[in-house]
Design brief:
Blueprint lengths: L4 H8 L9 E8 L6 H10 L6 E2 L2 E9 L4 H13 L5 E4 L3 H14 L3 E3 L13 E3 L4 H14 L4 E7 L2 H17 L2 E8 L7 H9 L4 E5 L6 H9 L5 E4 L6 H7 L7 E4 L15 H15 L6 H19 L7 H12 L4 E3 L2 E3 L15 E6 L2 E5 L3
Length: 377
Amino acid sequence: MNRLQTMSVALIALTPLAAQAEVTICASLSVTGPAASLGIPEQQTLAFLPEEAGGQAIRYVVLDDATDPTKANTNARKCVEDEKADILLGSSTAPTSASVAAVAGETGTPVIALAPVTVDAAVEPWVYRSVQKNALMASALIEHMQKTGVTRLGFVGFADAYGEDWLKTVTPMLEAAGIKLVAVERFARTDTSVTGQVLKLVASAPDAVLVAGSGTPSALPAVGLRERGFAGQIYQTHGSATTEYIRVGGPSVEGSILPVGPVVVAPQLPVSHPSRGIGVEYYTAYVAQYGEGSVSAFGGMMFDAGQLAAAAIAAAEGTPGTPEYRMALRDALEGLTDVVSVNGVYNLSADDHYGHDQRSRVLVQVTDGAFKYLALD
């Protein structure tokens, strides 16, 4: 029995009956490689996920994709073909999640991605996300920029699906807000220097810079900017919501602002926030196991994925291990409403496989080496 079982029972109405069948949830996570700071808390959060739902036991299988899209594709196929997965989870980054999603669409297996992945229309019916849309998170940053007088913004992002989606998302939003994008630079997750990009950013004289990266690599541009004397505001995305970002960035990331899921600062949330109760319970249990400063948005995304999966299992009918059951789970996921979890309230539909609203994001600022809740009001 996991430490949060009582909370999970209340949340998804698990039955008190003994488990009658076994449902397999198989995850491909980036436990090693450049995105390890994302994948490790996701893997660790498995211990806090429901062990049964709707009278059926849940079996979890975890495979490491090493932040490699090819390996993620191989893992997803192993999940479906060898483990007979009913639901897929993962992966930790947009590129690896795209690989898992491709297998999900091909095999008719629902997947809950932990990264904001964009897929083809033919695959989309099988793909759900426990991470917030980039547009939702970007809106919080742009609101802060407007309130603080930012009119010129520099952008540096990953040279992959994550960075490009952020650039595509924010460009029209910035234009609508009257903020000029004065420089656009890219870097790889594995880069060890971004000196060239930083020099171009500084030369464009921005009021602020947005770094569209995730995990520890996202600290690299911030360090470079401060070393070159940039004194403006540095914004990050929710991909940087890990204490490893703060550890690696050190003094250079002090003052940086980013949008995060509520769980990151659960004890600091207003008492009226719907995620405060369940968020504090998860936060407290996780800290008890892994220590102060260990909670990240990425563990929260895994926790929410587990809650969504369990809610679907409780609602779906059929025999685990069959195509018909996987379809029933897909249909159940698409019909979930008012699922309160650590990163907001989920309302999924045929038109929205994210299911978030503004309750799913808050702003934080790095202050004295920790994330501090930053009210927009």
